[in-house]
Structures are given as structure tokens and as C-alpha cells.
Write a structure and sequence with these properties.
Strand order of the largest sheet: 2-1-3-5-4
Number of domains: 2
Number of helices: 13
Radius of gyration: 19 Å
Structural class: alpha+beta
């Protein structure tokens, strides 16, 4: 009950920035519970629910720097996201979180339901505004990367009710001929068993794995696991020009997405959205970059 009262107060306070929280036919109390059991980031600044396409604040955190606690900047990031991604893909997103990445990360997505139909997008505001909004082009990179996580891990791509499959993620089993299933079968089968023996929290061993197979990954972060590999490879596919002679496996991974007409169309839509993307550098040390991304703001 206390959450509901807090929610309505926040709606009224925020009405000068966003359209009215109360729309005919919208049950606010029903929507506020959606995904409420899913934890937010430790650096939470503001969590929003998407109601009829509008951002409605539902949970407030603590901003260490006052400039982060600015709903106008939050909406600027959301509008930037909407300008890049087609509405049909945005429809998966039911919550939007602004948080302080503390110079260590740029964004994340997480599922809000067991059916993999509802997702939360989180964006680190310090990373988003490094040298101004998308000033270092990392916000655009993050949005493409995180959006492809949603596209490759939702209910059309995974079965959350079984672990009997060739490749199993935290969210569920990859379906036959899904994006992830095809990707793992094509590029990971000869190294997957070796990778699965590594503790996912052991960054040193993961980096040594990357160094051993450097020609197979677009950057060091892609070697984290197949889910990060496919998301980073897709991001390079969107941002970079087509390579008609992909020799190394990492270039073949980028080329891999051209077989999907819907992904080529999405690539074209993002590249024509008027957003500065910049080219993604092959072999970049992304992990170290993330640790120092945002401290200058």
C-alpha cells in the first residue's frame, strides 16, 4: 500500500515533465506490480514503468551527484533510445532504469517475468553523458548491444521451461534455429566445453581464454560467454561497413547476421536513424575501457 501512495505522489510531482500518469483505461495499481520483485541496480537513481508508451516513475534511488537526479536527462536518454530502435522491438521493454554505473558499466537488460515477454532496460547515466549525451558514442553501442540481448533471449528464441538443449542460458534453452542456437552451433562448438570449465567470475582466466582465441572474438568482452559474444558481434554488424572477405572467425561472426533479412532491415533502420554510431574497433579492450569510461564527467 505504501508503494502505491508513493507511486501516485511521484506521478503528480513528475507531471511537469511527463504527460499525465492517469490515462483512461489504464489500471495504475495493476501495472506497478509488473516486475516489482526484480532487483534494481545498487546505484539506482530512478526506475520508470512504461504505461501506454509514457515513462512513469515508480521507484527512486539515491544519486551521489545531483545532476544525475534530473528527469529531463532521463527522458533525453529514453528519447535517444526510441530514436534508434523501431517501435516493434521497443515493445518488449516494460521498465526503464537510470542508475549510476560508477565508471564500471554502461547498461543492462533483465527479464521481468518467467515467460521472457517483459524486460527492463537499464542505462548508466554517467556513461550516457560522458562528454555530453552519446559524446563518446558508447550510449549508441550499449543500446544496440542490450537490444540484441532482448531480441535473442526473449520467448521467441528461448524455452524457459527446460534445460534439455544444446545450449542453455540463465533464462532458458535456446530453441532450434534461434539466433543464439545458430551462433553457438556455428562458432562455439569446438571451444564451448573449455569455456564452461572457467568460473564466470574469474576475469583473469576469461581474459586468458580471450587471448588464446583472440582471432575469434570482436573484443575481449565478447569472450565472456556466447550471449555476450553474439550481442557484441551484432553491434559490430550494425556499426561497421560490410566486409566481403572475412578471413578471421571474428569477422565471420559479424558477416553471419547478413543471412537474416529482418536483422539487415534493423541494421539499415538504426544506421539511418540520424544517430552518430562510429565504427567499432576490432580487438578493442572493452573491459578496461568500461572500468574508466565515466570518471571525467
Amino acid at each position: 500500500m505504501k508503494k502505491q501512495v508513493k507511486f501516485l505522489l511521484l506521478c503528480l510531482i513528475s507531471s511537469f515533465v511527463f504527460s499525465s500518469c492517469i490515462e483512461d483505461g489504464i489500471d495504475l495499481f495493476e501495472n506497478i506490480s509488473e516486475g516489482s520483485e526484480v532487483e534494481t541496480s545498487s546505484g539506482l537513481v530512478q526506475l520508470y514503468q512504461l504505461l501506454d508508451g509514457k515513462l512513469v516513475p515508480i521507484e527512486k534511488g539515491y544519486a551521489q551527484d545531483a545532476w544525475m537526479d534530473n528527469p529531463i536527462k532521463h527522458k533525453e536518454i529514453w528519447d535517444f533510445y526510441k530514436s534508434m530502435i523501431p517501435a516493434s522491438e521497443i515493445s518488449w521493454i516494460k521498465q526503464f532504469e537510470i542508475y549510476d554505473g560508477e565508471g564500471a558499466e554502461y547498461g543492462y537488460v533483465t527479464n521481468l517475468d518467467d515467460g521472457l515477454e517483459k524486460w527492463r532496460l537499464g542505462i548508466a547515466i554517467d556513461g550516457a553523458y560522458t562528454n555530453g549525451l552519446n559524446g563518446d558514442k558508447e550510449l549508441a553501442h550499449t543500446i544496440i548491444h542490450e537490444q540484441f540481448h532482448v531480441m535473442s533471449l526473449n520467448r521467441t528464441q528461448l524455452n524457459p521451461n527446460t534445460n534439455d538443449c544444446d545450449y542453455n542460458t540463465d533464462e532458458g534453452c535456446s530453441l532450434e534455429e534461434s539466433y543464439l542456437d545458430d551462433f553457438v552451433e556455428t562458432f562455439w562448438m569446438d571451444i564451448l566445453e573449455e569455456h564452461q570449465k572457467i568460473n564466470p567470475n574469474n576475469e583473469n582466466k576469461l581474459y586468458r581464454f580471450y587471448e588464446k582465441y583472440e582471432s575469434q572474438f570482436v573484443n575481449d568482452y565478447a569472450a565472456t560467454n556466447p550471449e555476450e559474444d553474439i550481442a557484441e558481434s551484432f553491434t559490430y554488424f550494425v556499426k561497421n561497413e560490410k566486409n566481403d572477405n572475412p578471413i578471421d572467425i571474428r569477422y565471420q561472426k559479424v558477416q553471419h547476421f547478413y543471412q537474416y533479412e529482418e536483422l539487415v532491415n534493423l541494421r539499415d533502420a538504426i544506421r539511418s536513424a540520424g544517430v552518430t554510431l562510429g565504427a567499432a574497433k576490432m580487438g578493442e579492450n572493452v573491459i578496461a575501457k568500461k572500468r574508466s569510461c565515466c570518471k571525467k564527467f
